[in-house]
Design brief:
The protein is α+β, with helices and mostly antiparallel strands. Helices cover about 25% and strands about 35% of the residues. The protein contains one helix and ten strands; from the N terminus they run H-E-E-E-E-E-E-E-E-E-E. The N and C termini lie far apart (about 80 Å).
């Protein structure tokens, strides 16, 4: 093999190695971006109501309109969670801006304590930014003891600003849907042990 050919082979190998490194770096960066995109997407949905994500607020609306709107309630349980879950009322009619409380019920059908976490959305999606929850069981993990039945209230109102939105102003019926998924119980944070004083320092 000539020196020129040997040098050419080394150059090709070096170029190939640089391509492999560049491709690997690109793949790793895309994986990192995909993980970062999940919380960013969730935050975006919470702020904008995109995808039918409802809003969480601390106080009631100060404005109540004469116009009424219907809200229907849907309930689902994912596989692996032995619960019965349903709304007490399938539908209510309220004035836009009026704060009301409705309830769901859940029952643990198993002989073991079980834990669930609810996800939620509203349809049509354009109404998500205007569906405001003050209180909801979906904000925290839920534990049900064997055979236990629990009442689960939801306090909400429809923001009066919905009547001024181009996409949502003609909405007359909103469906609020929940799905409970199995959830591992949260472990308590271990208490930080107080440092033991060295007797030699006393």
């Amino acid at each position: 093999m000539s020196a020129n050919q040997n040098g050419t082979d080394k150059a090709k190998n070096g170029a190939n190695m640089r391509i492999v490194i560049a491709c690997s770096a690109f793949v790793l960066s895309m994986v990192g971006v995909s993980f970062a995109a999940v919380p960013l997407y969730q935050l975006f949905c919470q702020v904008t109501g995109y995808g039918g994500t409802t809003q969480r607020v601390e106080q009631m609306s100060e404005t109540i309109l004469d116009r009424k709107i219907k809200v229907r309630f849907d309930a689902n349980v994912a596989g692996g969670l032995p619960w019965s879950f349903k709304p007490v009322d399938r539908e209510v009619e309220l004035r836009i801006g009026e704060t009301i409380q409705i309830s769901y019920t859940a029952e643990n059908k198993s002989d073991q304590p079980t834990y669930g976490q609810a996800t939620f959305n509203v349809t049509p999606m354009s109404a998500g930014a205007f569906f405001n929850k003050i209180q909801c069981f979906c904000f925290t993990e839920t534990e049900l003891k064997p055979g236990e039945t629990m009442d689960m209230p939801v306090v909400f109102f429809v923001d009066p600003a919905i009547v001024d939105d181009l996409d949502a102003k003609d909405v007359t019926t909103i469906t609020l849907s929940y799905t409970f998924f199995p959830h591992a119980p949260e472990k308590p944070v271990a208490a930080v042990a107080e440092p033991v004083q060295d007797s030699n320092t006393l």
